Amino acid sequence: MPPQLLPASAAAFAPRATSVNVVLSSKVEPWLTQTLKRINRIKRPLNSVPQHQRCLTETLSSSTAIWTLTSIMLPKAPDAELRKDSNPLIEALFNYQLIHIEAYIVHVDMVLRNEVAFKLTPDSIESLIEYHKDIHCVDISANTYAWSEKELQVKKLHEEFIQAINKFVYRTHVSALEGLEEDGAGELLCGKSEEVKANIMGLFLPLLPPPPRIVDVVRPPPLLPSSPAGANWWSQSTLPSNVPAPVDSWRVIPSSPSTTSSADSNSLWASMGLNEIQLPSPTPSYSQPYSTSGLFYSSPQVSAPIPSLPLPSMLAAQQCGVSVGYGGFGQNWDRYQEYATTM
What we know:
Layout (H helix, E strand, L loop, with lengths): L20 E3 L6 H10 L9 H12 L6 E9 L12 H8 E14 L5 E6 L1 H21 L7 H18 L1 E5 L12 E2 L4 H10 L29 H4 L14 H4 L6 H12 L41 H11 L6 H5 L2 H7 L1
Parallel strand pairs: 1-3, 2-6
Antiparallel strand pairs: 2-3, 3-4, 4-5
């Protein structure tokens, strides 16, 4: 895309130049020739490109070469001061005014971009600045809630509008020169005035207040398994202090009977109470049922003969684990042969 070149007179707050910058191509369009012949009171020769350029430059550089870009209907006072009437025609007459937005041409380019650039006149700029300060800023301030920096934001918004309206340059196609009239004045055709109106009204920005603060709700921290507050929920039940740790029978009683082991085991199991014993769980599948009557073991109820009897060492280890609290092991070991014959 070719660069957008503008003269120094198009900058913000720059005064109007004494001469308009006009650049024509090597071939002049027929419509431009007809337009220049129509507006010139004195017949001037237009047979070459330099003649067209000189005629157009002199015409647009005249102090009377003021174009009317658009007309905007604006209120005369803030909303709170407007007159209220049942007749809408009376309200329009007393409450609104028509401001004509005027501009002059600062640049004509028929080589790179085929455009013409307009800059607003100082009178139009001053009218728009007064409306923005006295009416627009008052309305937007009244329609928003108050906060600490509200007046500062309104002032800043007005300063930004002053800069924007002074920088405003309207660019359009060079065919807009067909609306050229005598003495260099003119008017935009083909609905271009509505485009200018939309661009200018877009510079009247609303006042945006800061969003309301969101109050953070303080919530208690979640109870996790590792937190002290939830320790009672997850702690497992512990054994009472008076219950000793379980003791494996094979670590206390040897697998084979002997005189020393029988005596020691007899005194050991007699000194322990019933509530201090920890039975193995689950019970081995080959344990024999017992009966509490008479402290004697009953024979197992089977429907088929037992193929083989357990060894004495195995029987002794099993009975030591289940007969605690019901008598010494030595008293029952002497009657082992009697038990074996009844089985």
